């Protein structure tokens, strides 16, 4: 395989961040710009799709322009454009896709439609320009992908090869953080606000039961959310002040424990050499510390700034397709429900 340096512009607009980045050879971040709408959606306690797409329209041009400027590059210096094709909000995806298509049309650069989940996994390959790159993840590996919309346990035997071992049967891990934060009266997005509240709390104060599932690598978080809700209702009914910090810490501990146990179990069963933990929830301090504390596997967890949505990860995944000549033509449509793996393969 060629080892020439390739520079790829990534564009991401699947949810509530408009992002653009330039990445060299799938690893070195030359620039990464993120325009977040999170504050705007906070008043609704979640992402409001109509507002999201309109905000993307307003931000996308300046975001791409800034990413090129920060990288000190022009379109003529690039080799390809990678853009999130799905999954995500249709109206939001279309904005990034059309921007990418317009640039491709004007510049003649090839275009690659990237799966957002694949992007999260490839965030584990990234490093900031000027830093010494860490070792690349080695196969076979288990990737735990935990975001606001997805919770997946994936076996990768090689680049771009995904076998889904399990996924959530109801809420995604990040979604459960968001829902529990709401019922504890904490802000959106729920992950960071639960983490903050949990710092002052006792993770053993409440014992929330683990879901029992027939498939060993599937996850379920809705029962946990209901257990927190019942506890909150009982405490309120008894007239006591809510021990928010203890509830947040106990909930967080329950989520971290199940994610960790199943990932390690999968690594043992499938003979993985290394682990990747990626997606918005991988920004969680307790989750990072738990994975880092184990010694049997090398664990790749992206820098916190790369855990939540960004465009560098889209460029990184796009690079893997680009060097294999897996390109798209300008007529591609966005895929709001695009799974990383179409069916259960293992
Ligand atoms: O990957 P992401 O930015 O967007 C999706 O693709 O969904 O993930 C967003 C999710 C939200 O549910 C948010 O609450 C969660 O990641 N999250 C966290 C933390 N930071 C973000 N969850 C737990 N702890 C955090 N520190
Ligand atoms: Zn994401």
Explained architecture:
The structure is a single chain. The chain is α/β, with parallel strands linked by helices. It has two domains: 7-126 and 306-342, Nucleotidyltransferase, domain 5, CATH 3.30.420; 141-301, 2-Layer Sandwich (Nucleotidyltransferase, domain 5). Helix content is 39%, strand content 18%. The chain is built from ten helices and eleven strands. A six-stranded mixed sheet has the order 5-4-1-2-3-6, sandwiched between helices. Strand 1 (7-12) and strand 2 (17-24) form a beta hairpin. The radius of gyration is 20 Å and the shape is globular. Zinc ion binds at residues 116, 120, 147, 279-280, 309.
How many DSSP E strands? 11
What's the total helix number?
Answer: 10
- Oligomeric grouping of the chains: single chain
The radius of gyration over CA amounts to 20 Å
How far is the N terminus from the C terminus? 29 Å
The SSE string, one letter per element, is: EEEHHEHEHEEEEHHHHEHEH
The average pLDDT value, as a whole number, equals 95
How large a portion of the residues is in β-strands, by DSSP E? 15-25%
Ligand inventory? 5'-O-[(R)-(carboxyoxy)(hydroxy)phosphoryl]adenosine, zinc ion
Shape: globular
Question: What keyword list fits this structure?
Answer:
Nucleotidyltransferase, domain 5, single chain, binds zinc ion, 6-stranded mixed β-sheet, 346 residues, binds 5'-O-[(R)-(carboxyoxy)(hydroxy)phosphoryl]adenosine, globular, 18% strand, alpha/beta, 10 helices
